[in-house]
Every structure is written in C-alpha cells, then in structure tokens.
Amino acid sequence: MSRARIMERVEASPRFYARIGGVEYVFVIIAGTFAELFVRGRLFVHGDAAATAHDIMAHQMLYRWGFAVEVLYCVCNLPVAVIFYNLFKVVNRKLALLGVCLDIAVNTIEAISTLAHYEPLLLLNGGHH
Known about the structure:
The chain has helices at residues 3-12, 14-43, 49-58, 60-88, 93-124. It is mainly α. The model has no long low-confidence stretch (mean pLDDT 85).
C-alpha cells in the first residue's frame, strides 16, 4: 500500500480524529487546572488586594507562565471544536455546525477574559510594557 493511501485512510478514520481530540482535550483540562489551581489559587488572596498584588509581584514568572498556558488553552480549544465537528457531522451536520459556532463564541469570550488576567502585571509594573 502506498504512503499516500495509508495517510488517506488515517486522515479519514473517526478513531484518528477521536484520539487527537482526546489528547488535545486532556491538554486543555491540564492547562486550565494549572492556571486556576497552581497559579491563581496560589497567588490570589481572597479579600486582600494588597497581598494579592504582593504575591503577583513576588512571583511574576509564575504569573506569566499561567497567562501563557491560558493562551495555549484558548488556542487548543479551536482544533477540538473542528475535530468534534468532523466526528458529529455524520449524525447531524447542522447541529455540529452550531456547536462549532458556539464554541468559537465561547473561545472569543475566554480570550478577552484571558487578556484581562494580564492586566495586573501592567498595572503593578507601572504600565512599562
């Protein structure tokens, strides 16, 4: 069997799409957990803005890594939506397309929210970015 024919079979396989989607989805879950629990959960002090600002300034690199992981999280959500569309279009093409449209809307809102998470670094560093 030629290489082109093998690649055609692999690309057309729902199992292939499901595996790639599963790996990306696991990455999205891990990235979200890291950003929420290990960055913001560690640096944010409930009810004390001064302590939170101090923690962010003391651990700027950790806060930046959390932001970078959140950006990757937003970027990796889009291929998952396309993979879900490819898997579910055989069931109902219109509903699968609606799912992709809603996922794009959700990712847009999350991306804007993610930009707001970078704002404390700008404010605490005096806006020198």
